[in-house]
Amino acid sequence: MYLLSADGLSCGYGHSQVLWDISFHVEEGGIVGIIGSNGAGKTTLLRTLSGLVPAQSGKIEFSGERIEHLSPHKIVERGLSQIPEGGGIFPYMTVLENLKLGAFLPWNWKRISQSLDLVFELFSTLEDRKNQMAGTLSGGERQMLGIGKGLMSSPKLLLIDEPSSGLAPKLVLRVFDNIKEIQKHNVTILLVEQNVQYCLNMASRAYVLENGRIVLEGTSEELIGHEHVRKAYLGI
Ligand SMILES: Nc1ncnc2c1ncn2[C@@H]1O[C@H](COP(=O)(O)OP(=O)(O)OP(=O)(O)O)[C@@H](O)[C@H]1O
Ligand SMILES: [Mg+2]
Fold first, then answer.
1. 25, 65, 193, 194: least buried by Cβ within 10 Å?
2. Number of independent structural domains in the chain
3. pLDDT for 123-146, tens place per residue?
4. What is the helix, strand, coil percentage profile of the chain, to 5?
5. pTM of the entire structure?
6. Quick one: 162 and 235 in the same domain?
């Protein structure tokens, strides 16, 4: 059984359909990538998995349970948490206040000090800056805060949307190192990235999304060697 799987998933906004017949799966404990260019539908796919965009047809199964009809907070309760592009943080709240918001469910609240310990162990910078306004953080630190906030709900699966977006190369490497660390703490990761090289280095398998459809899937090695991926995404 897969931790997450989608079968024949279609969705969109109003009358415009964005995703067509999407089927994919994520094994427990791994990092799976989704790559695709601007407007391919990557964010829409994550939002559909989180219940923020309703599925028009198809099914989504998480931990053996159908979730496509559940509301976003019920999906978070099941252990699926999404980190939006840019981290989804509140700039006029402190780092600590932002983290606490991530633990809004009653049982998360009970184990808040353990969750904070884990986040501060992974991101010591956040501990140093815990009383600082989140809006004063650097781009990389904001990304860390976004991930930390996602971890506060003790997720089984984290959906991370373009963590490298807007970051200098040095910071990108650091954020990706952090993501690998998180994986070691039994959190499965579905990683959306436009930075295809980094994504394939991190993930064991990946899917290529183009114009709302999955056009290719394979192990990262297979995709790195695939002519279409090399030409269209790696520029080689
Ligand atoms: N709220 C919305 N209402 C209507 N259309 C939308 C909405 N959000 C996205 N779209 C459309 O859906 C399509 C897919 O957008 P989406 O944001 O999922 O792409 P993406 O792959 O995440 O792109 P990017 O790499 O730029 O983040 C685009 O054509 C976009 O214009
Ligand atoms: Mg996007």
1. 65
2. 2
3. 999 999 999 999 999 888 999 999
4. 40, 30, 30
5. 0.95
6. yes
